[in-house]
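Thread: GON domain-containing protein, structure

OP (GT): Posting the sequence first so everyone is looking at the same thing. Length is 267 residues per the record. Can we get the structure tokens written out before standup tomorrow? I want them in the notebook alongside the other entries.
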Amino acid sequence: MPCNLEPCQPPQEWRVGIWGLCSVSCGDGVTERTLQCVSADAQESHRCSQEAMPEAKKACRNPNCHLPSSCQGVQSTNGPLPDSEHFLNIQGKALKVYCAGMQTETPQEYITLTTGEGENFSEIFGFRLNDPTQCPPNDSRREDCDCRRDYTAAGFTTFSKVRLDLSKMNLITTDWQFAVTREGKSVPFATAGDCYSAARCPQGRFRINLSGTGFRVAQEASWISQGNYAVTDIRKSQDGSSVSGMCGGYCGKCTPSSGSSLPVTVE
């Protein structure tokens, strides 16, 4: 009769971690824990039974969440209030939103851009090259270029808050209530352009940085070029928290493909 006298493999078992925080602060979410297969001598293994594997995630719920879902809800619960920050239940998460117009019948939601105006601005560059078929060496700009400053659409606008359309989860790019136009004409959020050159060296810039707000630019957000010789260079961070753009032409600009709105999501 055949037999096998090789040493037996030490027993393997699943070791589980503690359940993590619920993925949402309001309503239904998911919680997860770590799983590790180890041998009797506590060495990592890959021989545990898959049938005996414990669950790594499960549904969870925060039953103590009674936050309003809009500034109108805050107003209806508390009556007229000064304009200020409030926590709202947005897609199951408690996020801080600035409520403006709380003394009116139609209060509006704004995201406070915690990274500041230096990280949230839009520019239509005002100079144009005297020879638009060239790009100056070393991407030189402004006063050190052989150019003139006569582009009437030029402007530079910074933003401290940006309007949020909760029903569509869009930022409204043409709301300037909490924007400052430092020079020229008001430029919408997430927009840039110039009339600098026809040779693909755009000088108009925009920057968006939603870090610290709980919101992110949606993955499907995109930009389109408009105008003559238009060039658009858009760079998004991997997590969608920030976007920067260099755009222009002779004359050209870039705007969100969705028009005067920019889709966002919660973290």
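GT: Both are above now. Quick notes for whoever picks this up: The chain has one helix and 22 strands. The mean pLDDT is 89.
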